[in-house]
Design the sequence.
């Protein structure tokens, strides 16, 4: 299995969106790690994130240090929100982690911002797209380490046909539902063998699992069979940097 880096906006996004593939790659002996854009190491959610990543078998948390758009107190006083951070600065911080880890694959948010369209998710998607390309170019961020070009970038996503029970669950607490057309999904992974670890990692985010509206809390209150049905499949869109395969002398749709 290739090495895998997850880049997500908040603690718990990694477990909800890619906990299965992170556990799958780790079980196969691959290096895995997660970069989280918001919440500070001194916040109550940092040890929860560390616990979740330990369950999934990844390396210690890597934090970019920005504040959550909806919780300014999530980072120390003076830290800007992720959505307000200078783009060049945020991209440079992520490039440093990419060049240090040198992952084969990076997985992050989709352009919609995962079902509910959270602004931090959308911003993390934009930053990841730019950082994956920039990491391989030696003239960009020269002080961030030796250039490294990941082989593939994937966006975790939800196809319209695969929303299933998750749709009514989110709508029951007044949340929006933003799913993508089927054609947008390039890869669907059955993570059933790692579903138990994935659910344990989700519940490790205790402060979210204790609340009524966040998805960890919604899942925690479901019967086991019902929640397993929701979490056992992970869908992705391949957004790969570098030249496209095929004829190198013409544009290929």
Sequence:
């Amino acid at each position: 299995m290739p090495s895998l880096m997850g880049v997500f906006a908040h603690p718990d996004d990694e477990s909800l969106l890619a906990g299965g593939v992170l556990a799958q790659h780790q079980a196969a002996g691959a290096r895995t790690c997660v970069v989280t854009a918001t919440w500070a190491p001194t916040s109550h959610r940092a040890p929860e994130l560390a616990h979740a990543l330990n369950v999934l078998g990844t390396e210690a948390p890597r934090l970019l240090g920005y504040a959550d758009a909806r919780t300014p107190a999530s980072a120390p006083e003076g830290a800007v929100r992720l959505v307000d951070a200078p783009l060049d600065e945020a991209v440079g911080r992520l490039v440093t982690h990419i060049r240090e880890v040198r992952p084969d694959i990076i997985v992050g948010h989709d352009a919609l911002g995962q079902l509910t369209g959270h602004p931090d998710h959308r911003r993390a998607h934009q930053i990841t797209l730019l950082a994956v390309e920039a990491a391989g170019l030696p003239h960009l961020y020269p002080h961030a380490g030796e250039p490294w070009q990941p082989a593939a970038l994937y966006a975790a996503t939800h196809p319209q046909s695969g929303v299933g029970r998750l749709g009514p669950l989110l709508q029951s607490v007044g949340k929006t539902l933003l799913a993508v057309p089927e054609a947008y999904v390039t890869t669907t992974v059955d993570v059933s063998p790692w579903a138990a670890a994935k659910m344990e990692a989700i519940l490790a985010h205790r402060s979210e699992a204790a609340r009524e509206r966040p998805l960890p809390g919604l899942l925690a209150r479901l019967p086991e069979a019902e929640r397993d049905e929701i979490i056992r499949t992970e869908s992705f869109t391949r957004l790969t940097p570098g030249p496209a395969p095929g004829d190198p002398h013409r544009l290929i749709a």
Observations:
- The chain has a mean pLDDT of 93.
- The two ends are 29 Å apart (CA to CA).
- The first strand starts at residue 4 and ends at 8.
